[in-house]
Write a structure and sequence with these properties.
This protein has eleven helices and two strands, in the order ααββααααααααα. With 196 residues, it is mainly alpha-helical.
Length: 196
């Protein structure tokens, strides 16, 4: 999702290929790429996002040109990958005290992100930036987290929800995020497989 958003923002035509993760292709087994450019695989979505930004740096830059601001954007992107994604997964896949701790952790992360966003429309300022592109796929999961965790993120973090809604107004985002019901069904199926 992240890469599709970034490529669309930069106006780069590309071919998207869905992989069946249960029956991996030889290419996926060999290098597990998230991006292939000029026949070369690039793994890991954050690395591939940086690759896209550096390769097509003349249009819609995602990372700031200032080294300090660039380091901060990378920090927050890692924060999303290591904290937000993990807490969200735990909200869906655990119960009881562990789930409650995950909900609180997720809400704490969102509070920190709201502080970083401040008064800006996007983490990148006036346009989508590296942190926005990293985080906005998580926004697509919020209703799933809320259903499994039985809580409301919007009630506690309206600034974050307003940011997500702004992002969804961009075609690059709205066309890249999967249907929330499909995400919910995916988690239900995965939980069934863990029980069996």
């Amino acid at each position: 999702m992240r890469l599709r958003i970034a490529l669309a923002e930069k106006g780069i035509k590309h071919e998207y290929k869905e992989e069946d993760l249960k029956n991996k292709s030889p290419l996926l087994l060999k290098s597990n790429p998230v991006l292939i450019h000029n026949g070369k695989p690039v793994s890991e979505s954050l690395i591939a996002l940086q690759y896209i930004d550096e390769t097509w740096n003349d249009n819609a830059p995602m990372l700031p040109s200032d080294p300090y601001l660039r380091s901060q954007a990378r920090f927050w992107a890692e924060f999303v990958d290591k904290k937000v994604v993990d807490f969200g997964r735990k909200v869906c896949m655990t119960k009881g005290e562990e789930q409650e701790a995950a909900k609180n952790g997720l809400l704490d992360c969102i509070k920190l992100l709201e502080g970083e966003l401040g008064e800006k429309p996007y983490f990148g300022g006036e346009t989508l930036g590296f942190v926005d592109v990293t985080l906005v796929p998580c926004y697509g999961w919020l209703s799933v987290y809320e259903k499994f965790g039985n809580f409301s993120i919007e009630a506690e973090h309206p600034v974050f929800i307003a940011w997500g809604k702004r992002c969804l107004q961009k075609e690059s985002v709205s066309k890249s995020l999967p249907d929330q019901q499909k995400l919910y069904d995916f988690v239900v199926q995965r939980k069934r497989l863990e029980i069996e």
